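hiii so um. not sure if this is the right channel but i have a protein structure encoded as tokens and i wanna go backwards to a sequence. like what aa goes where. can anyone help
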């Protein structure tokens, strides 16, 4: 890809690790059409497109594209398989493992609101910028890990946890628009940022939120602070990346920690 963001007439560029849980950003000449395993991918006016691979996705995929001149090409994508850790957390308040019936309606409403917040399909291509870490601190929880809460297996953890004291700033990893800023039963103070093309960041367990729905933020702008609201065992940021309904690994988007 050139400095202007254009590509040669027959050039395909892909940015992202070919592994389970990864978000991949691609570009072809404007006017191209793309499919992944036969499913059509949205392509913007600059020829940019995105796709992702689930936590336990199969390891072989076919990317096919048609150039503006009608030429068709295909590429086999071979993923590396990942091994996920198991984390055991005991001594939790049982109502946080199995919530009482009195809060089930709230939980259902929360889920509907989060789904709506991640349903926008904006034209922004901010996600083609390099991502930065949204908070300073050590990684205390990783994507894909299986948590056993009070001896009961839960669904896999789909976030990246950064452990830091309450009040540590949380910033936008890349430009975005706030589509949710609310207090939810499980995740406490929660913010959803729309980065465009179906890609969203979600920040959970915040102590404070300094943005509101509809606000636009630039990379590095503060959106809140780390906390332990909702179902949390200590102050930390749980950062999640979604591509539409896919839950992907944020750690694959940022530079390695030194």
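sure thing!! here u go:
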């Amino acid at each position: 890809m050139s400095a202007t963001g254009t590509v040669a007439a027959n050039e395909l560029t892909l940015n992202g690790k070919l592994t389970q849980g990864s978000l991949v950003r691609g570009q072809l000449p404007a006017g191209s059409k793309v499919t992944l395993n036969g499913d059509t991918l949205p392509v913007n006016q600059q020829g940019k497109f995105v796709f992702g691979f689930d936590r336990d996705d199969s390891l072989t995929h076919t990317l096919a594209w048609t150039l503006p001149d009608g030429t068709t090409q295909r590429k086999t994508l071979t993923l590396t398989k990942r091994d996920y850790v198991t984390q055991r957390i005991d001594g939790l308040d049982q109502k946080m493992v199995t919530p009482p019936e009195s809060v089930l309606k709230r939980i259902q409403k929360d889920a509907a609101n989060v789904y709506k917040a991640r349903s926008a399909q904006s034209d922004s291509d901010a996600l083609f910028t390099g991502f930065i870490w949204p908070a300073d601190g050590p990684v205390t929880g990783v994507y894909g890990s299986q948590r056993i809460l009070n001896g009961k297996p839960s669904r896999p953890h789909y976030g990246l946890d950064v452990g830091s004291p309450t009040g540590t700033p949380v910033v936008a990893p890349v430009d975005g628009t706030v589509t949710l800023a609310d207090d939810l039963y499980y995740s406490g103070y929660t913010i959803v940022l729309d980065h465009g093309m179906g890609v969203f960041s979600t920040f959970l367990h915040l102590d404070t939120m300094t943005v509101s729905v509809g606000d636009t933020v630039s990379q590095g702008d503060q959106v809140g602070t780390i906390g332990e609201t909702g179902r949390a065992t200590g102050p930390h940021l749980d950062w999640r990346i979604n591509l539409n309904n896919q839950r992907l690994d944020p750690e694959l988007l940022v530079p390695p920690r030194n």
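oh and Helices lie at 94-97, 104-117.
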